[in-house]
Design goal:
Layout lengths: L2 E10 L3 H11 L3 E8 L4 E8 L2 E8 L5 H9 L2 E9 L2 H10 L10 E2 L5 E5 L9 E5 L1
Bound molecules: zinc ion (ZN).
């Protein structure tokens, strides 16, 4: 595994604008912008804190995985994302170790990254994302 750091923490929200005010105005985090990620049917907003970001994730469609998460669990922490410099190698290694993967091959993520998710059944309830720049 080639994990380097926590890239971001993903938080599922119903409304990026409303929630964004908490991170921008109350916590004073630097707002990096929003982006639509079509492969995941979400709109995301990033806030920088040190080497890590907070990622607000809002579904853009009722069949988005995040819409299902909000319907069953409500708003809150959705996933943790680790930065890697060898996502294919890491996915192969995880598969070999018996991990259940949501994405066996990387998909396009925000900011031109390639991402893949590990199923929360493998990680005791924490949806885990890998991202490579
Ligand atoms: Zn993420």
């Amino acid at each position: 595994m080639m994990l380097e750091k926590i890239d971001h923490i993903g938080i599922a929200v119903k409304d990026i604008e409303t929630t964004g005010k908490f991170y921008r105005e109350m916590l004073g985090l630097e707002f990096l912008g929003t982006e639509e990620v079509e492969s995941q049917k979400v709109k995301v907003a990033f806030f920088k804190i040190g080497e890590t970001n907070i990622e607000l994730v809002m579904p853009t469609s009722d069949d988005s995985p995040v819409a299902k998460f909000l319907a069953t669990k409500g708003e809150g922490i959705h996933h943790i994302c680790y930065a890697t410099n060898d996502i294919e190698g890491d996915l192969a290694s995880l598969k070999e170790k018996g991990a259940r993967l949501i994405n066996e091959t990387p998909r396009p993520g925000a900011h031109g990254t390639r991402v893949a998710f590990i199923h929360p059944k493998t990680s005791m309830g924490v949806l885990t994302e890998l991202a490579q720049k």
